[in-house]
Amino acid sequence: MRGTVLAAIPVNMLLGLASILVAYRSGHGALGAAWFAASTCVNLLRIVLCRIPCLGLALTADMTPSLAATAARSVDRHLRVCTLAAFLSGLVWACQPLLSAGYTSPETLFYLTITCGVTAGAVTHGIAYARIPIAFIALPLLSVSVCLTYAGDFDRNCLAACVVLYLVALTHTAFRSQAVFREASRLKNEAHALARSRAEAHASASALVDEMRWRATHDDLTGLLNRAGFLQAAESRLHSGTLSLLLLDLDGFKFVNDVYGHKAGDRVLVEVARRLRDALPENGLAARLGGDEFAVLYDPATSGLAHDVMAANFITAVAHPFDGFDAGRLGVSIGVHAGPEPSLTEMLSCADEALYAAKAGGRNRFRVFDAGLREGLQMRRDLERDLSQALVENAPRVWFQPIYAADGHTLVGLEALIRWEHPRLGWIAPPDLIAAAAMAGLTESLLRYILEQVCAMLEILRSRGLDGVRVAMNVSPREMAQVPVDEIVIERLGLLDLPPTMLEIEITEETALDIGAVQGKLQALSRAGIRITLDDFGIGYSSLSSLRQLKADRIKIDRSFVTGLGTCDDKRGLVLAVLGLGRLLGLDVVAEGVESVDDLHILQAMGCPFLQGYYLGRPMPVEAMEDTLLVTRIAAA
Ligand code: C2E
Ligand code: CA
Ligand code: CA
């Protein structure tokens, strides 16, 4: 409304100005000036009214209802005052007949035209609020009509009637325009509100997207990058220089978690992350890849820090005591990869290889990936690549090593040991073969493959009536945890109709580390009549509890305590202790690694019930074993 009034007033003033000019020319200069002065005063009043603040115009959506009602009332009041001012302005224009002797002077045409123009203009402009233009036009047009009627002739009477009609038409138009304006305003307000709410929705959606993006690339606990975020960020920097990659793995973290609880473990991780960040060169990347494993990528050239200095810095940073923990418990091992590599994946596996070597060397060490490690890595990769084809071609063979009773002559069992001569790399150490199978995802295939050959040996033994000879098959902790060993073995024996009592499974203490995953399987094997032997006994750290948890029927003393028994009192003490333990708990004891006649005699003197070793018999292929069976005294079933 204010806008339309303010737009109409200059036109109003211009027409007023033209009126006094005409009045002056027709000899009514003084009257014209007085009229114009009155008109100007009212117009000024109207301008002021349109400019003064109005509480209602500050109306916002979040006003309290009572404040909103007050605001609405103030708008009503303001409109009424403005309508009154328009009426006053109309009153001034209604006085125009004074300048033209009641529309009878020769200037009548001019004044009539001006009045029609100003009233039409008021309605065309005043679309927002109809009452104001109507208040303005009513008096001038009525005064025209009255004066014309009063002047009396037919033409003028007709014109007077037309002016009344004109007034009615303008009034109608004013209300129509107001309705259209209100509808348009409503639509505009709605559109604004919609745009505002869409903008708000967009803002909150973008905030959510940002948050999700952050979570997808960062570790919640430490705020460092997570694996995905690290790979992404590292990939984009790979070609910007020769970068060094450090993989860090905490030493002793499991101890903190086990002894002090997971909350304390989390605090350690957060603190380690903080120390890494502090020691990190500018533009370096630090990430928590998972568990207690961290990664750092940086450019030694721009930071001026060589990778060995950097690794030593991290080791020192982590070595500082942590609040509330025994100093020196925690440490970090670091694998470093420096120099160009074709891809990030390659850098990671090289650094991982170095980390593995660092860990094997002890705590708080770093190892830089070098030619030696590259050779080892390459060999493992060749193994992984070639193993599945080798299994198809039946290249790996299971050999058997005899196990004897205390006399050293009576055969009581065999241990199945895998052998593979790689066409290029030569004989592969069984632990390397097992590890390669794990890396190649062939753990279960290899287990089934070995079981097949073990079962073939069981069939040979049974066919010769040698049911008393048991065959021991090694099952690694990983195989035990990841493969349904119990189901596979029991099903296979059942299918071939082989007695489970002829089979023995050798496991190591490490199997107990994931006791939840293996206990059920061991129980099932045990229930089926298959014996469980705890291998490499004596080199672990929790032997007694493992014995109970793993349901072992037998223990096999590790060969490091057996070989050279005669030359070392410590070994003798340990073997005696294990033999005593076996008697006490009712467990069979096997000594492996009998390499000399001395070893044999000492073990016999100690009363060791079962013996295995190169002195008594080396591992041999099936055919050689079959020959041996022909010439050996065999234990009765
Ligand atoms: P293990 O279970 O302790 O097997 C005994 C190892 O000692 C065998 O080495 C055997 O050849 C060797 N050995 C036997 N008597 C003597 C001796 O008098 N002196 C010396 N110095 N060594 C002797 P091998 O065959 O190289 O196997 C090494 C390890 O690889 C095994 O240790 C076992 O942990 C693993 N392994 C071997 N075959 C298999 C298999 O089929 N499956 C799984 N999961 N692991 C296997
Ligand atoms: Ca074994
Ligand atoms: Ca062993």
**CATH fold description of the largest domain:** TIM Barrel
CATH class of the largest domain: Alpha Beta
What small molecules does this complex bind?
ligand C2E, calcium ion
Strand content: 5-15%
Q: What is the annotated CATH architecture of the largest domain?
A: Alpha-Beta Barrel
What is the CA-atom radius of gyration, in angstroms?
51 Å
Shape: rod-shaped
Helix proportion of residues, in percent? 55-70%
CA(first)-CA(last) distance:
113 Å
Q: What structural class is derived from the secondary structure elements?
A: alpha/beta
Number of strands: 15
Strand order of the largest sheet: 6-7-9-10-11-12-13-14
Written description of the protein model:
- The protein is an alpha/beta fold.
- The chain has helices at residues 2-25, 29-51, 65-93, 108-125, 131-151, 154-217, 227-237, 253-260, 262-279, 300-303, 307-319, 344-361, 371-392, 430-439, 443-463, 477-482, 485-496, 515-527, 543-549, 559-562, 569-585, 597-606, 622-631; strands spanning 244-251, 285-290, 293-298, 331-338, 366-368, 397-405, 410-422, 426-428, 470-474, 503-507, 531-537, 554-557, 588-592, 610-612, 633-634.
- It has three domains: 2-194, no CATH class; 227-369, Alpha-Beta Plaits (2-Layer Sandwich), CATH 3.30.70; 400-414 and 446-634, TIM Barrel.
- The chain is 60% helix and 14% strand.
- A hairpin with a 4-residue loop joins β6 (397-405) and β7.
- α3 (65-93) runs parallel beside α5 (131-151).
- The longest helix is centred in the first third of the chain and has 64 residues, at 154-217.
- The protein binds ligand C2E and calcium ion (2 copies).
- Ligand C2E is lined by residues 401, 416-418, 429-431, 434, 450, 474-476, 479, 506, 535-536, 559, 563, 592-595, 612-614, 619.
- One calcium ion binds next to β11.
